[in-house]
């Protein structure tokens, strides 16, 4: 082959490789997700643009992605049950399966009328959790859809609400701490009753006379590496400019660091890194490192 043919072939191959390497999905329920439990309580609307989950005394409902991913950016727009949502928990999370699992969680804990939802976040790495941070929100999450995102790359995990970072969990393998890195994770969303603990420590129970409760989800954006290709696909040295891959290097710029500080100083209501009672004064090692 002439050298121009060789380079053309190489060019075509690299286009193909970058196309298959990252799964970019504009988000349709039917394409990427399936109902996991509570069939009768899950309604897919508008040709797969929206799903609503209902909760009554008999059941809640949940859905999960058909595929598993290893690193990526995952967006979900959620509108929560308004009014008295005490006892209910609405979730959006990533999780691997099996022992020593990895997990990255958003959970929305309902409240009585007029009291704020709590956003609960957590990270499990090789089965170790106990890394909770909780927030209130600077808006009413029941009036409209808002975007909740998880950025998971080889260096860090970033939790975002409407593009504002609310939490960064850094990869500190350099000091021997586990980081979710070698297990692919599925995407899950559920709506269920947890009135034994969810609201004001379990004191406020679900009022079933108000059922069914509803949580709505839409805009199922996935920009991620397929589970089978994770580490090579997510490595930051390649495809820096590929469309939709900016999450691979994503950190926080100065404005985003300020925004994170604003959220954490005004809206954080629990931080495991300050919980000396739970950890018997011996705070987890990552707490001694900058979280930004
Ligand atoms: C990868 O995951 C397995 C299974 O959970 C875990 O036991 C192992 O320590 C991990 N290996 C590395 C290098 O992180
Ligand atoms: C519910 O409201 C109370 C009182 O405002 C607040 O302290 C609490 O964080 C809220 N969220 C939950 C889940 O209890």
The helix content is 10-25%
Beta strand count: 17
Integer average pLDDT: 90
CATH topology: Jelly Rolls
Active site: 103, 107
GO molecular function: hydrolase activity, hydrolyzing O-glycosyl compounds; xyloglucan:xyloglucosyl transferase activity
EC number: 2.4.1.207
Function: Catalyzes xyloglucan endohydrolysis (XEH) and/or endotransglycosylation (XET). Cleaves and religates xyloglucan polymers, an essential constituent of the primary cell wall, and thereby participates in cell wall construction of growing tissues.
Task: Describe this protein's structure.
The chain is of the alpha+beta class and 292 residues long. It has one domain: Jelly Rolls (Sandwich). Helix content is 14%, strand content 35%. It has helices at residues 3-21, 29-32, 230-234, 254-267; strands spanning 23-25, 33-37, 42-45, 50-55, 61-65, 69-79, 88-95, 103-109, 118-124, 133-135, 146-152, 156-161, 164-170, 186-193, 213-218, 222-226, 268-271. The strands form 2 sheets. Strands 1, 3, 4, 6, 11, 12, 13, 15 and 16 form a 9-stranded antiparallel beta sheet that branches. An 8-stranded antiparallel beta sheet has the order 2-5-14-7-8-9-10-17. Strand 7 (88-95) and strand 8 form a beta hairpin. The chain is globular and about 55 Å long. Mean pLDDT is 90; it is low at 8-20. Bound molecules: 2-acetamido-2-deoxy-beta-D-glucopyranose (NAG) (2 copies). One 2-acetamido-2-deoxy-beta-D-glucopyranose binds next to loops. Residues 23-217 form the GH16 domain. One of its GO terms (biological process) is cell wall organization. It is found in: Secreted, Cell wall; Secreted, Extracellular space, Apoplast.
């Amino acid at each position: 082959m002439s050298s121009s043919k060789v380079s053309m072939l190489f060019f075509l191959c690299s286009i193909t490789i970058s196309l298959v390497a990252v799964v970019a999905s504009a988000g349709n329920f039917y394409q990427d997700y399936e109902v996991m439990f509570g069939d009768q309580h899950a309604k897919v609307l508008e040709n797969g643009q929206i799903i609503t989950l209902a909760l009554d005394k008999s059941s809640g409902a949940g859905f999960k992605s058909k595929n598993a991913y290893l690193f990526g950016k995952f967006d979900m727009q959620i509108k929560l049950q308004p009014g008295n949502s005490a006892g209910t928990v609405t979730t959006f999370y990533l999780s691997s399966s099996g022992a020593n699992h990895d997990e990255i969680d958003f959970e929305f804990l309902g409240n009585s009328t007029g009291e704020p939802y709590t956003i609960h976040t957590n990270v499990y790495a090789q089965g170790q959790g106990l890394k909770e941070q909780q927030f209130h929100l600077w808006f009413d999450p029941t009036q409209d859809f808002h975007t909740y995102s998880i950025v998971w790359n080889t260096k860090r995990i970033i939790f975002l609400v409407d593009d504002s970072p609310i939490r960064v969990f850094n990869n500190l393998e350099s000091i021997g701490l586990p980081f979710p890195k070698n297990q692919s994770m599925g995407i899950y969303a559920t709506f269920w009753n947890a009135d034994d603990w969810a609201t004001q420590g379990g004191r406020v129970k679900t009022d079933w006379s108000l059922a069914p409760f509803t949580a709505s989800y839409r805009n199922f954006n996935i920009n991620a590496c397929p589970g089978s290709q994770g580490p090579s696909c997510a490595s930051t040295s390649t495809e820096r400019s590929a469309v939709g891959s900016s999450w691979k290097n994503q950190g926080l710029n100065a404005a985003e660091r300020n925004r994170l500080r604003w959220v954490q100083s005004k809206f954080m209501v629990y931080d495991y890194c300050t919980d000396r009672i739970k950890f018997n004064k011996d705070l987890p090692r990552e707490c001694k490192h900058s979280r930004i």
